[in-house]
Amino acid sequence: MSPPHNPDAEYFPVQCLSVDEVEKFLNELVEQLCTSIHVTPSMSKVLLYENKWAVQEVLWKYNEDADKLFVASRMKTLHPVSVKTKRDKFVCPVCVGPVAEELGITSLACGHCYCDNCWRCHFENKIKQGVSTELSCMALNCELLVPEEIVLSTVNKPILRKKYQQFAFREYIKSHPLLRFCPGANCTAVIKSKESLAKKAICTQCETSFCFKCGNDYHAPTDCATIKKWITKCADDSETSNYIAANTKDCPKCNIFIEKNGGCNHMQCLSCKFDFCWMCMGDWKAHGTEYYDCSKYRENPQNGSESARAREALKKYLHYYERWENHSKSLQLEKQTLDKIKERINSKVMTSKGTWIDWQYLLDSAALLAKCRYTLQYTYPYAYYMDNGPKKELFEYQQAKLEAEIENLSWKIERAETTDRGDLENQMDIAEKRRATMLQDFFHI
Amino acid sequence: MNNIATQRIKREFKEVIKSEELAKCSIKVDLVGDSYTELKGEIAGPPDTPYEGGIFLLEIKVPETYPFNPPKVRFMTKIWHPNISSVTGAICLDILKDQWAAAMTLRTVLLSLQALMAAAEPDDPQDAVVAKQYKEYPEIFAKTASHWTNVYAGGIICS
């Protein structure tokens, strides 16, 4: 159930931060830790990075057992190597040469000593490979992390220093569960939320919407793991499916080629005037009022040989894929549909059929249609991975209802007149309610 | 080649020559040409394995950035092993990739390879065909590996 204070189950408050604001936010956390326990800012960054920036948890673990925390955070080892060699007898194990007078010898808490020149070469080499926060000691199997201040005081090439700081900043954000880079192209914003949930976040800078948890396109009611599986599967099988789900279909009655160039699945053949459903190619009359069962896939119970089973599996996948792809294409045509609506509004206003304001509801309905269709598209991967049973039946029942209402809405929008505004708004309400019910029942995060 | 790399290789070369493994004829390193950028390694097949009795030659290329990056190592002798390509001799071993540490040496690399020959990691295969046989038909695998050792690495056929 959705919380009482906000009826929209999908509501997800996020903040859109600039790079400077994020830096400030992270620095505050670092400072907070520094003042509570006695560590340098650079050490406290390692601690926070290793503990997902949970300051309270770090403090609690510190009070419990500080050594354990430092070991778990790769800052200390249980058995450090004792260094007793005098400086003049020291041979750096990496360059195996005598260490020049002016060069320092440095070790982390593990006690593995190397000359500063080798440390610098090590850092530079790793930074060039894109390593920053994961920079570790040079000894075999030693996982100790090198704190930022040692890296910055050793590396002196400005380009590499800058690279290191940029990479580290990226890693800090990636390791913080409540921060995420906006996945929008060329967008530098960082999105901050209060909880790490698979909900819809919208970047206020570039208006990209995405799932906050996984960063993919928003995918309710499917969960993050399932959508990832589905997208990978579609990418694998795309060749076959692309071939099958070609862009044209034949009219089931007169066999003329039909290309779908608008959003609605209720098709009418221009040549023979036959009304049919684009999904199942069946007569539309069979769908309309009673029961819309076209989104439901009927599994063939007689599965005999292995090849028949493989065929059946492919058929099942294609059934879902085709519908997924169909809705995705419909959504891609959204802009075209919107332009068409605007054009229509213009022509209506010009011919004095209502004023511009009278027609604005059409734009709202188009937006709602896109929203509903989007959710519908993402119900297919969910259904594909569901086990057979009453739950799936209920899901597919609701899915079919949602689909029917969406097609109704789409049909009505395309043929709207000022006179049936009430009817259309009623249809909008029905479609949105169907969508909300579906999410409420099946999208648990 | 930079100073550190040359200095290191010279030193490691001495280390291998002085090592007890060389005395036991189990590992060996030779220079190829005058530069220290290319070397030739040799490992004896570990006892109680299908590789016993064989001598396996390795191509070792030392990168400019050595020892901060690992050396590039490849089997020149054909070998039947899940983690080594039966065609190219390419090796799948973590320390030659992301687990490399600057403090490792040629000697440790050769010894690790010898250990890999004794204990394969079929779940992280380089050669899928070999790995499948290793897991499903271990006896046929042992015979094939032993035969290859005999034909290509001059070993005897284990019964």
The stretches of 5 or more residues of chain A where confidence is low (pLDDT under 50) are: 1-6, 241-246
Please write the string of helix (H) and strand (E) elements of chain B: HHEEEEHHH
Number of strands of chain B: 4
Strand content of chain A: 5-15%
Given helix and strand content, the structural type of chain B is alpha+beta
Distance between the termini of chain B: 48 Å
Unreliable stretches covering 5 or more consecutive residues of chain B: none
Number of helices of chain B: 5
Identify the strand order in the major beta sheet of chain A.
Answer: 1-5-4
Count of β-strands of chain A? 11
N-to-C terminal Cα separation of chain A, in Å? 11 Å
Order of secondary-structure elements of chain A = EHHHHEEHHHEEEEHEEEEHHHHH
Summarize this structure as a short list of keywords or feature phrases:
heterodimer, A: 445 residues, mainly alpha, three-stranded antiparallel β-sheet, two-stranded antiparallel ribbon, 11 strands, 49% helix, B: 159 residues, alpha+beta, four-stranded antiparallel β-sheet, 5 helices, 14% strand, globular
Could you give the topology of this structure?
The complex is a heterodimer of chains A (445) and B (159).
Chain A: E1 14-17, H1 19-36, H2 41-50, H3 55-64, H4 66-72, E2 105-106, E3 114-115, H5 116-128, H6 148-154, H7 158-175, E4 179-181, E5 190-193, E6 200-202, E7 209-211, H8 224-244, E8 248-250, E9 257-259, E10 266-268, E11 275-277, H9 306-332, H10 334-350, H11 360-384, H12 390-414, H13 421-442
Antiparallel strand pairs in A: 1-5, 2-3, 4-5, 6-7, 8-9, 10-11
Chain B: H1 3-18, H2 20-23, E1 27-31, E2 38-44, E3 55-61, E4 72-75, H3 106-118, H4 128-136, H5 138-153
Antiparallel strand pairs in B: 1-2, 2-3, 3-4
Helix pairs in contact in B: 4-5
